[in-house]
């Protein structure tokens, strides 16, 4: 895989989508060569759900929630419930890493297809708690931020597991 944060053109849309893909690719890189035991390890005593598999599964379902559920008003298919609001972390800490990654790649494909014909100024079908309806631009930036923040977690988890570092 060749990761790049350079867009195919320098317009805003291409730049946003390139950065989103770059943060996805960076997370996938953190999983390269990792076995299921490493993906399921939760080495932080205060964060028992914080595993590499759990974080990647969370990224998948966050993307589903923001694009498929909230932005285009599709059904919420996420694994979370009132009884287990962090179920995506639980599942990702148990499922084979290949299954988690395949689900995440498929989610990225669906996201890319759904946003392909939308304008950056289009408004989300579902408002925020404030009542405001965010633009697609904001949602894409939010996904970049979410991925980038969790990539930092993946850096630490991977280094704690086997010493692997990198950008």
What does this structure look like?
The protein has 167 residues and is an all-alpha fold. Helix content is 58%, strand content 0%. It has 6 helices and no strands. It has helices at residues 12-31, 36-40, 52-71, 87-92, 97-115, 136-162.
What's the SSE blueprint?
Elements: H1 12-31, H2 36-40, H3 52-71, H4 87-92, H5 97-115, H6 136-162
Helix pairs in contact: 1-6, 3-5, 3-6
The percentage helix is 55-70%
What is the tally of helical segments? 6
Percent strand equals under 5%
- Give the overall shape: globular
Largest sheet: none
| Derived structural class | mainly alpha
Write down the secondary-structure element order: HHHHHH
| Mean pLDDT, all residues | 96
Low-pLDDT runs of 5+ residues are: none
How many strands in all? 0
Distance between the termini: 14 Å
C-alpha Rg, in Å? 16 Å
């Amino acid at each position: 895989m060749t990761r790049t944060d350079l867009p195919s053109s320098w317009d805003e849309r291409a730049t946003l989508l390139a950065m989103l893909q770059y943060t996805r690719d960076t997370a996938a890189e953190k999983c390269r060569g990792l076995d299921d035991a490493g993906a399921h390890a939760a080495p932080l005593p205060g964060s028992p759900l914080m595993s590499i598999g759990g974080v990647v599964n969370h990224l998948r379902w966050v993307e589903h929630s923001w694009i498929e559920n909230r932005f285009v008003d599709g059904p919420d298919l996420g694994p979370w419930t009132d009884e287990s609001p962090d179920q995506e972390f639980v599942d990702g800490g148990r499922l084979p890493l290949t299954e988690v990654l395949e689900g995440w790649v498929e989610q990225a494909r669906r996201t890319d297809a759904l946003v392909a014909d939308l304008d950056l100024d289009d408004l989300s079908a579902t408002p925020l708690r404030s009542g405001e309806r965010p633009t697609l631009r904001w949602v894409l930036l939010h996904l970049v931020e979410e991925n980038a923040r969790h990539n930092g977690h993946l850096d630490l988890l991977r280094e704690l597991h086997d010493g692997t570092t990198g950008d």
